[in-house]
Amino acid sequence: PAAPEAASLGREWSLGHESLSDYEAVRSLPVRSDLDCTVRASRDSAVQLVAFNASSGLCAHFRCRLGLSHCRKCRNANKGAQRVWTAGSDCWTTVQHRVSGSVDFYRNWTQYQSEFGEGPDGNYWIGLNSLHALTASGPRKLRILMKAWNDSEHWAEYSSFSVGPESDNYRLSVSGFSGSAGIGDSLAPWSNGAQFSTK
């Protein structure tokens, strides 16, 4: 069944459960209801998620960390105990996630065609066939989140991203770069139009 939705001041809000790890608190204020909570949040375009606590009557507003618009990850949808309203229903699909050396990414062509790893919360690769299927209906956005050794976080985003079919060796098409301060475009100038290759 689909999650309930509400429209407040022209913004759509979807009810569900969400991990708050990609969000930061903006404010908390007293309100009368879930609806009042989403109406007040709709006045601030930076607010991406709200949580209403009926027992305290408080409405907590959250925005995406790093100043990003839309940080909801599909893998976090309906996880956790926190009942929340999220702005819109779009979410990000994890393509690759690397957090440690526990999974060997030095693999052959056949292995890269399929999903491998510990799942999207651990070391993970979605698979070339899935990546092509995800982008076959039209280009998608690509967001790359990076964490440095000193825990500083950065992001890069491409407004157009697609991966071709196996018959074209999963050719990459990527353009429309934007990024956090100090991050340059190190993907499109060298990789746009390139075919996938591995060992």
Short description:
The chain is 13% helix and 35% strand. It is mainly β. 19% of the residues are buried.
Description:
The chain starts with a strand and ends in an 8-residue tail after the last helix. It has 199 residues and is mainly beta. The protein folds into 2 domains: 75 residues, Hepatocyte Growth Factor (3-Layer(bba) Sandwich); 96 residues, Gamma Fibrinogen, chain A, domain 1 (Gamma Fibrinogen, Chain A, domain 1), CATH 3.90.215. The strands form 3 sheets. Strands 1-2-6-4-5-3 form a 6-stranded antiparallel sheet. Strands 7-9-8 form a 3-stranded antiparallel sheet, with no helix packed on it. Strands 10-11-12 form a 3-stranded antiparallel sheet. Strand 11 and strand 12 form a beta hairpin. The N terminus is likely disordered. The protein has 4 helices and 12 strands, in the order E-E-E-H-E-E-E-E-H-E-E-H-E-E-E-H. This is Fibrinogen C-terminal domain-containing protein. It comes from Macrostomum lignano.
